[in-house]
């Protein structure tokens, strides 16, 4: 059938493979019976995860050498100083009752990069969500839900990936 079946969580938690199978079943007329996730989210990170039937596009979008920006919403416990926020490249900073919320943009993206960067400045990340991948924004899409990309979004993603 070509549906992703090897993606699973060793602890039995829901995984991207489960979501992909659901997405493919919900569109039985789709000619593309195989989807590639672009990048990944760790178990403590929520948000946008792109999938495509174009393996080459998935590779280019995920590879750090193409420097495709990924924007994250970060909530930290503790009050960051202006110098810390500047060092983190924080944008759209808002104070909260226990700390602050802000956005950070990465282009390389190593494992747990935001959590480690915040920890180096004495901040503990309370919540982390990918809110945009290149030109595609999460918007109001609920956890576990999916939607098709628009033709405009696909064109813009190809531009980001050098294609």
In short:
This protein has five helices and eight strands; from the N terminus they run H-E-E-E-H-E-H-E-E-H-E-E-H. The protein is of the alpha+beta class and 163 residues long. It folds into two domains: 77 residues, Pseudouridine synthase I, catalytic domain, N-terminal subdomain (Alpha-Beta Plaits); 65 residues, Alpha-Beta Plaits (2-Layer Sandwich), CATH 3.30.70.1560.
Strand % is 25-35%
**String of helices and strands:** HEEEHEHEEHEEH
Mean pLDDT: 85
Label the structural class.
alpha+beta
* The CATH homology group name of the largest domain: Pseudouridine synthase I, catalytic domain, N-terminal subdomain
Can you tell me about this structure?
By secondary structure, the chain is an alpha+beta fold. The protein has 2 domains: 16-65 and 134-160, 2-Layer Sandwich (Alpha-Beta Plaits), CATH 3.30.70.580; 69-133, Alpha-L RNA-binding motif (Alpha-Beta Plaits, 2-Layer Sandwich), CATH 3.30.70. 26% of the residues lie in helices and 26% in strands. It is built from 5 helices and 8 strands, in the order αβββαβαββαββα. It has helices at 16-25, 55-62, 82-88, 113-120, 151-160, and strands at residues 36-38, 45-47, 50-52, 70-77, 91-95, 99-106, 124-133, 136-137. Strands 2, 4, 5, 6, 7 and 8 form a 6-stranded mixed β-sheet that branches. A two-stranded antiparallel sheet has the order 1-3. A hairpin with a 2-residue loop joins strand 7 and strand 8. The chain is globular.
